[in-house]
Write a structure and sequence with these properties.
The structure is a homotrimer. Helices cover 63% and strands 3% of the residues of chain A. By secondary structure, chain A is mostly helical. Chain A has a two-stranded parallel ribbon. In chain A, helix 3 packs parallel to helix 5. The longest helix of chain A has 30 residues. The radius of gyration of chain A is 21 Å and the shape is globular. Chains in contact: A-B, A-C, B-C.
């Protein structure tokens, strides 16, 4: 077996993970301090918002990706690994842009931002799901969050654009970064598909846990970093955008399928597009009417993307987007950026002012450009031959990197070394 | 096949859903405004309560109904569809009763009320689960929320009754509306039962996700609309009512079963009856003692209802209550109404005053009467022959309205059009 | 069959549960009052923290234990029963130590403490999982919470030790209590293992639901009872301890397994050890650096415990720890106690003062001692011959105490008495 497919991770994964944790602990020791000794009421007030976002990152993204029949451990487990590493690295990368007296001050807000930064990697993970190793994902986490933090600084601080719910800086960025990486990592051997790239009934049910927790807490995601006076408006706009998007996604799913049946892929993903698309202008005075229009269009383009664009990307552009992140985060993220440009042109108010259309456009352009270049660079790095990438035939299969129950059983963990009572359960 | 069973939903579902969404968006454009530009601290303070209720509606009700072995997609998916439509329609229907200057002002409170209004339909959905089409459920959502909003206005504003946790206006209303509709929709062909009206081990596990999130957040449900000074008391009463109910439900479940075994149906449902029953007087000064007595009685009557009343309703009254909503919402809702009458007669305090026993009794009577008549009317409308109702043999089966994995597998969604790598997984 | 294995629970379980509920209601009637008529803003402010802890107790602990292939109903169901009984009993036991004018005043804080007290029993439940009856668990709940409340009073009030996140008083206590009970309940007949003491793919997925909700809300668990000024710091310390622990646990899991594969047992459990270990000094000024060091060590010792210590305990010490609670709660709990002693010796600040090292050491010693003696006593009581303990061959099997679907199907509950349409689903 060529070294490119040396999937034994015993030392390379362990050593890399421990090295990263040691490095992070040293950097935290040098740079990171508590925000202040007496927290203001304001910050702890954001804690429920933080917890909602936290659930989205670990349960929402994690379970959303469990739809594949033999890749549940990796989906929810590697999602957890990426997020745990990413939130530490994100604290540092975002903190370096906002140091005071050479120190990074952390509080509830920095924790929300750290969780946000992990979302970009989890979105990109969806594009390469099933075709990468845990070692590769550790590296991608470090690379992507570093680049994300630079782009976010550029968009928010340098350009002065508004992107409260992060349609552009998180969703479009994560999607196009992932698609670009997936293009570089393209496997000709999988162009006919793969027998494990399928769901089963129960795996689709598990995925709905992810969908629902993402759906429910999206108003918190979009409003967590909004100005306190605008938080309620942001919540309302997101709530109605999601609801309108859901109805549209159901309608379109039935319309594009033979015999009008609903497709779980659309329900799991396209119902969420409204939250992505309304993000950039969720705190503007767009009224529920505007939010519902944005949500409806998002649901529509997301279903159409799944039906027509993803197969086209796969067969013509050689971009194999496992979870269809282009339809959930890419297109709706673009729509969110466009909506913010239009809102700016229409002088829609954001607090006392209104955003600048050219700056919103520049933000969207920069984000897509940096994501595409950054993703391609990440793809090249991940193609290095010793990173444990799985061979084609073992893609979408937990058993490459996980101890998986034989015939769907495994001994209860604490007896991992006792082989003698390991039995096969033929009834399951 | 007769047109009554024309289950191809391609155009009728899509067009109805899009028509409803367009209608709603137009009505929102005309009538709906943000509550105020500067939200008070008070309202955003309710946001964690809203989020708990939101989780109950989508995850709680959705997963509670996934106990059927082949109806998980519909349970959690159509639940989501009903709730997304219902919260938009509920915002309008409840808003029309409280307009200021011809406008509906929305905020966190109206969002909580909108979520509440969807609960009635989701309860009724449980009574007809497995025997209706998504088209029928869209229509039932519109009808039921319209009638619910009128009844709620009658009970709270006209009669001046108290029903903070909505034992009567949501739980009893939703249950008797659903039972009445189920009576009209009775299918003689299913009187011997149906092979798919069963659970499997894993579907019962999924249902427990729903049960637990309902159980946990019930104190938020009952207290979300309570007066701020009484919120803590409402939380405490609900907490102890649920706990006492749970112990009683476990005890009774073991008592009524052969060999004293516990029955998952009781654990999934009857443990929640305490939250329903304590709703009407949760903000009164009934003390934990009173709450625990109400909860214990609720757990008891709920298990007894499942064991003896539901089979009787089915065989004698021709009411086939798929989820047993009568035992979870109907009987405990009645108990809640009765408890509020007794509390009023005993001059139990609610804030500075105590409620009026005759008005509580009138509220209970009106609610049951309107629910029964409204449900029968809804049933007649749903019986119209072109609404895609499934034939008897296809009841309780997702595959009528959903793309379902063949042999429990389906190709990962984004390749829905690539038939060539669709394989059958015989190991699952 | 000997009476020791009389697993028919019909009367003994029902009567015991009803007796306990009646006893509790009487005691509540005599002793329990609302905290005050006008709740302070402060207390209701803790409600989101309470809800997070509440989710951990019922969903977190409940689903974490569902990893066994045929024991999901018991894991999540009996967990619910224990918690519902425990929170009532805990309210009384903790309340008796803090009465004012012969009354127990309850509010959000007492609800958080009541939930906390149930955690000890749920941890111990993990040590004896699959080998006990529901009757035994009711008795253990009463015994353990009574002893826990005494130990907590001793540690916090008499010794004046600090243990905000309860590394010692909950985690170490629950673990050593359970291990001691498991030693007394040791079954020689299971020394070769048991065919049902295994997971299947889907049961490991369900267990991850528990893991993630525990992981996410651990900052709330540790900070719920912290001084308001220190709450944010407690949250931050726990957040980074968990993240560092997760990376270390993944690294070690891969390092100790053949071919470097990850083991679900480690991911489900050892990733949580950081929350346990940082508990005792989470509100101290240990900086993120200190928190991450504690978390990393916790992840390391937890994986090593699963790999080497649990098999040793089983084969040499005759302690069969089903869930490996020693590695998740025992060792990390000890580490938390040690960390608080070291922090006290280093004069690390807790608010204006710093804790006393001798008192921290005394607290740790007392807790372990009382847990071991208390657990052994509980084990002796549970060994009484009429408590429905399952025979060896029926361990780890729901069907002893639950109605379980034949061939993984059961009739939908409301037709429990209609045997005629009970069919076998061979496709599942």
């Amino acid at each position: 077996m060529p070294s490119a497919f040396a999937t034994n991770m015993r030392f390379k994964f362990s050593i890399l993970a421990i090295f990263l944790e040691v490095l992070i602990i040293i950097l935290f020791g040098i740079f990171v301090r508590y925000e202040n000794t007496q927290p203001t009421t304001k910050d702890i007030f954001l804690y429920p918002f933080f917890q909602d976002v936290h659930v989205m990152i670990f349960v929402g993204f994690g379970f959303l990706m469990t739809f594949l029949k033999k890749y549940g451990f990796s989906s929810v487990g590697i999602n957890m690994l990426i997020a745990a590493l990413g939130l530490q690295w994100g604290t540092l990368m975002q903190g370096f842009w906002h140091m005071e007296a050479q120190k990074i001050n952390i509080g509830i807000k920095s924790m929300i931002n750290a969780d946000f930064s992990t979302a970009t990697v989890l979105i990109s993970f969806g594009a390469v799901l099933g075709k990468t190793s845990p070692v590769q994902m550790l590296i991608m986490t470090i690379l992507e969050i570093t680049i994300f933090s630079c782009n976010e600084h550029l968009v928010v601080k340098v350009l002065g654009a508004t992107d409260t719910g992060a349609s552009m800086t998180i969703h479009a960025f994560g999607a196009y970064f992932g698609l670009s990486a997936a293009r570089v990592l393209y496997r000709p051997g999988l162009k006919e598909g793969h027998k494990n790239e399928e769901s089963v009934y129960h795996s689709d049910m598990f995925a709905m846990i992810g969908t629902l927790f993402l759906w429910l807490f999206w108003p918190s995601f979009n409003s967590a970093m909004a100005h306190a006076d605008l938080q309620q408006r942001t919540i309302i706009n997101t709530y109605f955008s999601m609801a309108a998007c859901t109805l549209t996604a159901f309608a379109l799913s039935s319309l594009v399928e033979h015999r009008g049946k609903l497709d779980m892929v659309h329900i799991q993903n396209a119902t969420l597009a409204g939250g992505v698309a309304v993000g950039s202008c969720a705190d503007m005075s767009i009224y529920p009417l505007g939010a519902m229009l944005i949500g409806s269009i998002a649901g529509l383009i997301s279903v159409i993307g799944f039906k027509f664009l993803t197969p086209f990307f796969f067969s013509k552009l050689k971009i194999h987007d496992t979870c269809g992140v282009h339809n959930l985060h890419g297109l709706p993220g673009l729509l969110g950026g466009l909506a913010s440009i239009i809102a700016a042109m229409a002088h829609v108010k954001l607090g006392e002012t209104s955003p600048s259309a050219p700056m919103q456009a520049a933000a969207l352009g920069c984000t897509i450009g940096i994501a595409l270049v950054g993703g391609a660079f990440a793809g090249l790095v991940l193609n290095l031959p010793f990173l444990g990438q799985p061979p084609d035939e073992n893609c979408y299969n937990d058993s490459v990197y996980w101890e998986v129950p034989a015939e769907e059983t495994r001994p209860a963990g604490q007896f991992g070394d006792y082989g003698d009572h390991r039995t096969v359960n033929i009834n399951m």
